[in-house]
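WARN retry 2 of 3 for item q-0093 after timeout on previous attempt; input resubmitted unchanged.
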Amino acid sequence: MLLPFVRELFADVEKLPAFSRVASHLREGTGRISVSGLTPTAKALLLVLFQRAAARPVLVVVSDNRAADDLVPVLQAFCELTAACDPESIVSLPARDVLPFQNLSPHPELQEERATALWKIATGAASIVVAPVAATTIR
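OK item q-0093 returned
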């Protein structure tokens, strides 16, 4: 059970003027926006809150599978703490371990995780997708 004052503490972040400027920019969909100077934990919190403010899915591109595996539990925790979205709607789309033309068998667990993530994205069940650069650039 989450205590009410914890949610109120995180709700105060949404009242900051800088957050309001970015959130209004996201709602309008006027293009790219860059937010810098944040610690990794603050980035995770703001990603969850920005997703709620934008009211549409968010794609987070990270450097590799390890970075995605590290970020997903933090995002899920902030989803629970802020009630911004369902923690199950945070999806990790891992990069392939072998390319299709290499004539090697891909790892079955990795293929299962990719298939599950792609299914959630296709059905609209994903609110935040965390994907390595390699997963977003290959067809």
